[in-house]
Amino acid sequence: MISSKLFIYKLIFFVFLAIPAYANAESFFVGENFDAAGRGTIDADMEAVGEHVYFYVENNYRSTLPPIEVARLNQRALSLSSEFDTTIYPQLREAFGSERVPGIDNDPKITILLHNMKKGVGGYVRNADGFERSVATDSNEREMIYINIEEILNNDLGPAYIAHEFQHLITFNQKTVLHGLDEEKWLNEARSEYAPTLLGYNREFSGSYLKKRVGEFLAHPSEALLDWRGRSIDHASVSLFMHYLVGRYGVDILGPMMAANSVGSASINEALASLGKEERFADVFQDWVLAVYINSSVDGEPQKYKYQDGNLSFGNLHVLPTTTFRLYDNYSSGANFVIDNRSAQWHRFVPGSLGEASTLHIKISSQNGDDLSVPYIVRDFFGGTEVRFFDLAQGNVLSVPLFGNFISSVVVVPTLATAGPSDVGSFALEAFVSNSFANRFSEGALVRVEGDPRVYIIKNSPKIGGVFKRWIQTEEVFGFYNHFTWNDIIEIKSALLATFQESFLIRRAGDPRVYEVDSYGRKIWLNITAAEFEDSGRKWDAVYEVNEAEFHWYK
Fold first, then answer.
1. Do 162 and 23 have their domain in common?
2. What pLDDT was estimated at residue 130?
3. pLDDT one-digit tens code per residue, 166-189
4. SS3 at position 422
């Protein structure tokens, strides 16, 4: 049996054999914002050499390690060198393209420097290294990756960190060197976040790089995708988007995206077009924010709203509602919200009582009407899920019938897409549940909203869901009808009143001619044919019959 002391001596001996005989200490510029001590330069020795890579280790850090840890560090460097040569280097180049070869130093090998960094930093690259010192005075003048030495020693995520940073080197060549472009930070990071999955490093979900990102995303799912600030939640958001994108369109989308003579969402659009797809970035983004909530098959769309990666199934990844509103009959509920550009929220509405055939009405008010999309998710009591889309250009009240006796929940998913990456919008939701309008309000019922003096008279259409309101413009007009009393006026919620269609059409009893009135008390005869009346979008059901006094009151 070998003694522990002899084992240590053997390891130390092996370390000296593994380090190349020509290894010399070199000085490197490092990122002050990432270095544990805020240094701008450090000295490092070469630790291992591979077919495509040099590994250097910070001298000061190595000097603090006991011999057994020095041996273990050397073993890690040798193992990572082999992994880089056999897996990371060939597979990422096949998917994304090549880094700069032979590079600014005329050496085809990549340099990887292991040094002590701040807690939470896995690694980084410096674009300055890709330029001569006459251009960038702190350039190391080589294709170079920096990895946190503590992460190499204390966990098994070293290959994932190296894969992440190597993608950045490829992007620098493909976008900056070859096309003279600066890739948008969010998309550059998104590709790097996918690189470990591409190489199989996230196959075991427990303790993986990907699991860490999923946890961060679920804690902050409404972070703006394009507003990159370098936080872990920013990495998580772009990671989950890229995993959805590649899961839906395959790894074949990565090469065209990188080769495109454009950056950001425009390069995704180019890649989708090259694959013959009709969708564009805006479509994919909207589908993604639905997928992170649903993450399962949907009626008519078995794959569109779910992740294809088994590790990202519903059990591991689904966002919770931003808010939940429980609604009871004839009571309203709602709130005001602020929303970032290229972000989403999930507002869930559930019935307060079951079994009654009610209709859910959601009034959506926003100054960002042209930029605010409102898809919504409808679930029933029998396990069905359906995705629908509400067009704010057609009105601002969304109505869903059978709420409470067939529909179990409605989730509204507002998403904002404005021109600027950091723009902020706002919107308000007000929801109301009611039974059938025809049963609740008889023909000729008088209604108003609490706090609003305007009184309306109701008219029911024979068509299902068709209810009209006509404003009684003055107290004088109100007095023309002896059967009207102020005590008959029903106060209703504003969300309910908003669901009624406004009518300005009248005719005199016994006279077939139809007039249109305006809010200034003026009337005009619609001297048009019946066909022209219908083609104009006007409805016969919306024509109110008025008495002689009111008819002659209008100018």
1. yes
2. 95
3. 999 999 999 999 999 999 999 999
4. coil
Of 135, 153, 182, which marks where a domain is finished? 182
pLDDT recorded at residue 438: 37
Domain CATH code at residue 422: 2.60.120.510
Residue 184 has, within 13 A of its CA and on its CB side, a CA count of 18
Here the contacts of 28-34 (C-beta below 8 Å, separation 24 or greater) are: 28/56, 28/113, 28/140, 29/126, 29/128, 29/129, 29/138, 29/139, 29/140, 30/113, 30/115, 30/146, 31/124, 31/126, 31/146, 34/117, 34/118, 34/121, 34/124, 34/146
Average pLDDT over residues 387-407: 89
CA 265, chain centre distance (Å): 13
Q: Are 234 and 342 in contact, with CB atoms under 8 Å apart?
A: no
Q: Which residues, in sequence order, are bridge partners of residue 460?
A: 467
Q: Looking at the structure, do residues 123 and 109 belong to the same domain, yes or no?
A: yes
DSSP 40: S
Helix (H) or strand (E) holding 449: strand 446-449
Residue 24 has pLDDT above 80, yes or no: no
In the structure, what pLDDT confidence band is assigned to residue 488 with cuts at 50, 70 and 90? confident
How distant, in Å, are the alpha carbons of 214, 297, 298, 468 from that of 303?
20, 6, 8, 41
Domains: count for the chain: 4
Q: Are residues 91 and 124 in the same domain?
A: yes
- Token pair 């946190």: residue: 148
392 with 488, same domain: the answer is no
Which pLDDT value is given to residue 17? 39
Distance CA 481, CA 367 (A): 40
Q: Residues 401, 447: one domain?
A: no
H-helix or E-strand containing 163? helix 158-171
**What digits encode the pLDDT tens for the residues 279-292?**
999 999 999 999 99
52 in Cβ contact with 109 (< 8 Å): yes
Structural domain boundaries enclosing 374 = 323-435
Nearest to 45 by CA among 8, 16, 14: 16
Q: Which residues pair with 176 in a beta bridge?
A: none
Tell me: do 173 and 63 sit in the same domain: yes
Do 290 and 336 lie in a common domain?
no
pLDDT at 499: 76
Q: Are residues 158 and 200 in the same domain?
A: no
